[in-house]
Amino acid sequence: MIQNPLYIVGFVFIIAFGSYLLLTRTVTLPNFNLLYSTSTTRVGVSVTSPPSAGSSQISSPPSGSGTPTSPQISPSEIPSGFTLEDLSPFFHKVRMNGVSPGGLYSYSQVNLSAYGLSGGEAVDITGWLFKGNSGSQYIPQAVALYDPSGLSGEGDIVLKNGDMVSIYSTVSPIGRNLRLNKCIGYLENAAAFNPSLSRNCPYINRSSVGGFTGRCQDYIMSLSGSCRLPAASPPIAQDDYACRAFLDTLNYNGCYSKHASEPDFLDREWRVWTGSKFLDDRHDRVRLLDRQGFLVDLYEY
After folding, report:
1. Disulfide: which of 37, 83, 163, 244 matches 159 by Cβ 3.0-4.6 Å?
2. What is the pTM of this model?
C-alpha cells in the first residue's frame, strides 16, 4: 500500500535533523590547566619558609592578618639592583630602623618597626629572612602573653601599626622570645637577660596600702614601680602578717594577676634572642625578605 508522500517527507526530515544535532553537539570540559595551575602571586599567597635551627615550626599567616594593600612606590624609592617586581607588598611598611653589628665581645642587634600599616592591617613576620652579605637569620616565633607558669607556647609574631621588634644575637635565659608587658621586668630577678629587661613595673597606689603600719607603707613604697622583689628578711615586724601577705604579691605572678586584664597591659615591643650573629662586624648590606622572597627593606652600613 503506497503511503502519502507528505508523511514520508516529514519522517525523513525528522531523522535527518536528529542526526545533525547528535553530530554537532558541543561538550564543554573543565580547564584542567587552570584547576591545577602552580603559578603564584605576591599578594595572598602563604609560603612557609624553613625555620632557623632550633626554632619551632613556622605556621602560615593568621586569617585575621588581612591582605596587604599594594604600596605606592616611586621609581626613586626602589633600591639599586632591584625592580618594582622585586618589592614586597609590605615594602616601606615594615622597616629596619637600626642595625648594630656589635663587636667581638658585644651582641649584635636589629630593630624593626611597623609604622606604614593602615588602620586594621597586620603582618605576620615569623619566617621572614634577614640576609646579609655572608650570613642570614630567619625571624622565629615568640610568646605574646607570658604566663606566670612559664609554660606559655610560642606563636607567630604579628605586628600592627606602631609595633616594634628588637632582635639580638644573645640567648634568652628562659628559652623564650617575648612580647613585653607591664610586669615583664620582674623576670630580671630570676634570670639575667642580655640586654636586660626594663625595670618599669606598675606603681603601687598608696591608698591601697593606707591601712598598713607606717614602717610597712614606707618599705612597700620603696619598692613601688621598680620591679624589685621584697628582701628575704624585710625590715617588717615578724607579727605584721597583713604587711607580709601583701609583700608576697610583689612579684611577676602577683603583678600579672592584678594587671593582665588591663587594655594596655601588653607593650608595643617584642624581644627576640636568636643566639646567632649573622652581621658583618664592619660593613654589610642587610636585606629583609618576606616569605615569598620579596624585598621588605634594605639597610647598609
Report:
1. 163
2. 0.75
